[in-house]
Automatic annotation (TrEMBL):
Keywords: ATP-binding, Nucleotide-binding. Residues 1-92 form the Protein kinase domain. It comes from the Eukaryota. The lineage of its organism: Eukaryota, Viridiplantae, Chlorophyta, core chlorophytes, Chlorophyceae. Pfam families: PK_Tyr_Ser-Thr. This is Protein kinase domain-containing protein. The keyword Nuclease does not apply.
Amino acid sequence: MAPEILRNEPSDEKADVYSFGVVLYELVTCSEPWTSLNPMQVVGAVGFAGQRLALPPGLDSQVAGIINSCWASKPADRPSFAQLLERLRAFKELPACPHPPAAAAADGSSGGLAAVAAAARSSSGGGAGGSGGGAGGVARQGSALAAAGSSGVQQQEQPLIML
């Protein structure tokens, strides 16, 4: 969850952009974030102390830039989903997960970021006014992600805390 939500402040779609950055983090690391903290500690760390997850050393600088831009402290400084889509389309492929989940290894895929790159490339970016926004663009992007497969996402027996 975005810091502004944890602080019970007004929010908009930029809170979802923050969460998308966390999803990208999970795809890059193939791990659950903040495992050493309990939920209340995560609220304090993210919502009130301004802490962010550490990105793995050696991560592609463009991928790190995308994630960090999603995690900007001020919502107005975060990119729009249309801007994120354009940045993701630039990738021919994204780095493979360092330790792909068993499902990804079994089907030969390289992890979740490959699905994100494929979905971004296959998305038409249309929607309301052709700007990449609107429900039509979101539906197409969601369909593209589904078509790309979700083999890079681990199935968890316990619910995840998505921050």
